[in-house]
Design a protein that fits this description.
Elements (H helix, E strand, L loop, with lengths): L1 H18 L7 E3 L3 E4 L4 E9 L4 E5 L3 E7 L3 E8 L8 E9 L2 E9 L5 E8 L3 E3 L2 E12 L5 E3 L5 E3 L6 E14 L6 E8 L1
Length: 191
C-alpha cells in the first residue's frame, strides 16, 4: 500500500510540474539606434518585455520623460536642440536583473548658422540673397515686425530714419546685398 501511495504521489508531482511553464525574462528594444535631427524633440523607444524594467539616460542633453509599462513598454526621452557643429550620441540603458540593453540616440549636427544685422537709414529694405544648403531663417525688421525668410522679400518702414534689421539664418554659407544705398552698418557673426 505504501508503494502504491508513493507511486501516486510521484505521478501527481510529475504531472503538476509539467503544467507549470517556466518563463524566461525577456527585454527586447524594437531598435538599437535612433537617428534624430538637430532640433529639440521627444523620442519614443518601444520595448517588448515580460518583466519590470529600469531606465537610465546617460547624457546631459537628453532626459527621461516617462516609461509606460506593459507587455510593450514605451520609453519617452526629451532631446534638446544640438547647437554644435558636430553630431552627438546619448545612451539609453534598459535593465532588468542581469538583462541589460543599450539604445543609442544619434543626433545630427546643427546646420551652419549666420547672424546679420543691417543698420540703414532708408524707408525700404530688400533682404540679402542667401547662399547655402536648405537656407531658412527669421527676419526681425526692428520695428516690432518679423517674418520667416523667403528670397526676394522686402520691407517698408512707417517713417524715414535709422533702422536695424536682423537676419538669423540656418544653412547659409554666404550672402549678397544687391543695394548698399542707405546702408551704414553691417554686423556679421557665425554661430
Amino acid at each position: 500500500m505504501r508503494r502504491v501511495l508513493f507511486v501516486m504521489v510521484a505521478l501527481l508531482t510529475l504531472v503538476g510540474c509539467r503544467n507549470r511553464d517556466i518563463v524566461e525574462p525577456s527585454v527586447k528594444p524594437e531598435r538599437d539606434r535612433i537617428i534624430v535631427g538637430y532640433e529639440a524633440q521627444d523620442v519614443e523607444i518601444g520595448i517588448e518585455s515580460n518583466v519590470d524594467i529600469s531606465v537610465d539616460v546617460a547624457s546631459d542633453w537628453a532626459t527621461l520623460i516617462s516609461v509606460d509599462k506593459g507587455k510593450r513598454c514605451v520609453i519617452k526621452v526629451h532631446v534638446e536642440e544640438n547647437f554644435e557643429r558636430a553630431p552627438r550620441n546619448a545612451k539609453v540603458v534598459i535593465t532588468s536583473g542581469e538583462i541589460c540593453h543599450t539604445v543609442l540616440i544619434m543626433q545630427e549636427k546643427s546646420p551652419q548658422r549666420m547672424s546679420l544685422t543691417i543698420g540703414h537709414s532708408g524707408k525700404d529694405l530688400k533682404t540679402p540673397t542667401w547662399e547655402g544648403e536648405d537656407v531658412r531663417g527669421t527676419i526681425d525688421w526692428g520695428d516690432g515686425r518679423s517674418e520667416e525668410y523667403s528670397e526676394g522679400v522686402s520691407h517698408s518702414y512707417d517713417a524715414d530714419g535709422e533702422h536695424k534689421a536682423s537676419f538669423d539664418m540656418l544653412g547659409s554659407t554666404s550672402f549678397k546685398l544687391d543695394e548698399l544705398e542707405n546702408v551704414n552698418h553691417l554686423d556679421i557673426s557665425y554661430l
